[in-house]
């Protein structure tokens, strides 16, 4: 089968990583794979198949409504022309804008939407352009042949808030290439050794509002009173990098972002790392403070190297750490679940000098308890790895194989 994968870019986001992994799985299943990105860029992910880049600049949040609409229409035209040439049998799209364009440019091909977010919580869809996108989702998504959310939570969000027919939905989680992660985790730290001589809590993700690193910095400052040798490592890049560096200094934290091989700092911003697993495997805890997640890949990758996870109950995290519980539950306290610790989602905007919010207090208390209890860390370390058997590469590839073999496209 000739299969297209449509995505804005192969950048450093979890969604791009999922698209790249899907290209590899489809190639292993002997499909002809074509990846189409929305604009020209240097790919940051390993992928399989032929790469096509539409020559259209990316739309930016700070652009005017007419500018963003014009770029949308230009991309629509370019995509329609490329699809006529490629003659794919199925086009699988990632991101809301690309999925709308997938539907609008489809001829006789099958249309699959790979869904990786909690749309109703997306703060980037609050302006006029975002409201138009949400309107088009309600109007057009039901024209797709199939919608494949990565979690039950993201699926129910589509049904409840965007009137999507449940019959169109089949949930398939992201895969975890456990063996590859384990191999990469054993690689040398190459200049970062001094940091990990002390206990480290680690966070990985884009430096954006949705990832909640501002709360993590405030919580970490409080933990230093009891654990003065503790280090915080933040992996990833994004538009809030400079803002978070400034915020860290306003909190009185000693911050490093340009001389990593030193143990004299408290917080380390280490940017995007092609191999984050070598940092995971040397850390004490993985901490995810996100405000919304459909199914965070960073958590699953951390758990693959026996790293215990503490995470906000912000969507699909519950399905990873507390399987069997209602995915629509959202805790207001510390929940020491079967495979990790779930904590409340942050709601209030905070500045460096503000008093601690109630969720922050719950986080601080729970993290103190965990860091003081080696047996709990050891227990969650063992359970973390065992949980990843449910997301192994071969199992998820089999689900995609079954979907493509059984489903009758248009």
From TrEMBL:
The keyword Cell membrane does not apply. Residues 197-324 form the Glycosyl transferase family domain. InterPro entries: Glyco_trans_1, Glyco_trans_4-like_N. Keywords: Glycosyltransferase, Transferase. Pfam families: Glyco_transf_4, Glycos_transf_1. It comes from the Archaea. The keyword Glycosyltransferase applies. GO terms for molecular function: glycosyltransferase activity. Its EC number is 2.4.-.-. Residues 14-179 form the Glycosyltransferase subfamily 4-like N-terminal domain. This is Glycosyltransferase.
